[in-house]
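Q: Given only this backbone (451 positions), what sequence would you predict?
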């Protein structure tokens, strides 16, 4: 009997190695290598022997229909996809388990089926009953959506060829397998080979296919990064376990921009679009309290207003406590040091807690000025004007540096009804917007006069 040959794959990125290594040379992940049988090559003789010829086509002769997109009616999803689903595209939807991938795709299938589109929803994780239960929660117990509970890709392929749907959903790629690939479902070679087959179906038959891929930190299944380079579009669905909002982000898109995000809220009737994320993030904001200020962060090309809170209080311990929720801990420490040194506030004897309210994570430097204002406001116990927002990067010498897309941030503030905007002087000089007062700041000392 021929000996079965094994190779090692990185389950994060799919890198192949003849022997086991502790750290992946490609993605630098530790302890990510798993042993799997070598993927069999399909026989059929070399192309050279068969003397097949390929003929190039002139660009002008390639016909390309004008209407090659299907609108999903979920505005936020259409936006992230770059204006609807491109016919014949392969889209990967990644995210942590339980974040709402199945819910989003079932909602999309529902809306498409209601518009008489031929949609096939294939689940390898849930039985038909379970899908129906979910559909009932989404207020879609009766309808024409075609369901299939199957994990064998050869059978799925045959079904797709017979039914010829316009859109197919594969939930999830880690449960699918092809019999001729020796390894278990979820292994690197299975995930790669099944995606390969799906890509051939998508391109060959002009069917748009959505693939769900779970992000895994631990465990034996391969992560979606293995297939990121194979698909046309990669969307990641992210959110906080404690907050109900979800952000859909395009990290790769062959048919549109990757700067777009879609914002959703998980409710008991499924995912609801959040058309105005700023309003959503500022719900329940206290007014007239010290240590709170609103800033405008950018999520790709979209401005989102968030509230930054700080609590600074005296401590009797030698080691003051510092925490940062929703932003970078080290950045907060650095800003505390800058405030202490440049403005002479006695922060070394104070605990400081900084929080970006609403559960959003903001890591851009434009947040600096808001963090500093919140800290000073809390330290002095003086509330800031509730109709003021602030943004700007702060350097180590206390200088305030310019940030990108300042104009969009100011416009968003104006739209949300704010009256004063504190921003870097450099940015202020370039902006001409009426209806909101702009306060340019050069160094931190200018800030003190404001309070
Ligand atoms: P799901 O789509 O199953 O996640 P994934 O496919 O990414 O693993 O989402 C499951 C979560 O969503 C679950 O915790 C329950 C919640 N949920 C709601 O809050 N409302 C709803 O209407 C639905 C269908 C799910
Ligand atoms: Mg699911």
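A: Predicted residues:
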């Amino acid at each position: 009997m021929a000996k079965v040959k094994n190779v090692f794959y990185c389950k994060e990125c799919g890198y192949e190695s003849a022997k086991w290594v502790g750290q992946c040379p490609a993605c630098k992940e530790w302890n990510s290598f798993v042993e799997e049988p070598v993927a069999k090559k399909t026989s059929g003789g070399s192309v050279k022997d068969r003397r097949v010829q390929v003929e190039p086509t002139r660009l002008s002769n390639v016909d390309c229909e004008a209407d090659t997109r299907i609108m999903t009616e979920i505005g936020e999803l259409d936006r992230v996809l770059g204006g609807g689903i491109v016919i014949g595209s392969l889209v990967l939807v990644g995210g942590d388990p339980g974040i709402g991938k199945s819910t989003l795709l079932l909602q999309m299938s529902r809306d498409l089926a209601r518009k008489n589109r031929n949609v096939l929803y294939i689940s390898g994780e849930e039985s038909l009953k379970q899908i129906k239960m979910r559909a009932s929660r989404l207020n879609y117990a009766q309808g024409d959506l075609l369901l299939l509970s199957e994990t064998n890709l050869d059978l799925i392929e045959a079904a797709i060829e017979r039914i010829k749907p316009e859109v197919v959903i594969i939930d999830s790629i880690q449960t699918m397998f092809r019999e001729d690939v020796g390894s278990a479902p979820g292994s690197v070679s299975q995930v790669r080979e099944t995606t390969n087959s799906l890509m051939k179906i998508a391109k060959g038959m002009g069917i748009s296919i959505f693939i769900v891929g779970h992000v895994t930190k631990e465990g034996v299944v391969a992560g979606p990064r293995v297939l990121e380079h194979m698909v046309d579009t990669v969307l990641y669905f992210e959110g906080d376990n404690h907050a109900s909002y979800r952000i859909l982000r395009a990290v790769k898109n062959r048919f549109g921009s990757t700067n777009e995000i879609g914002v959703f809220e998980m409710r008991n009737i499924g995912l609801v679009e959040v058309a105005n994320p700023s309003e959503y993030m500022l719900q329940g904001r206290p007014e007239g309290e010290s240590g709170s200020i609103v800033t405008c962060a950018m999520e790709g090309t979209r401005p989102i207003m968030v509230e930054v809170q700080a609590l600074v209080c005296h401590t009797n311990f030698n080691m003051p406590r510092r925490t940062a929720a929703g932003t970078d801990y080290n950045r907060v420490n650095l800003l505390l040091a800058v405030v202490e040194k440049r403005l002479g506030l006695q922060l070394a004897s104070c605990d400081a807690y900084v929080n970006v309210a609403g559960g959003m994570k903001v890591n851009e430097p434009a947040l600096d000025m808001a963090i500093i204002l919140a800290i000073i406001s809390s330290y002095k116990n003086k509330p800031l004007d509730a109709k003021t927002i602030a943004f700007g990067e702060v350097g180590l010498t206390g200088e305030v540096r310019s940030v990108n897309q300042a104009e969009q941030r100011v416009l968003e503030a104006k739209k949300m009804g704010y009256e004063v905007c504190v921003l870097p002087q450099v940015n202020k000089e370039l902006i001409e917007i009426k209806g909101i007062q702009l306060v340019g700041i050069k160094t931190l000392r200018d800030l003190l006069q404001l309070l």
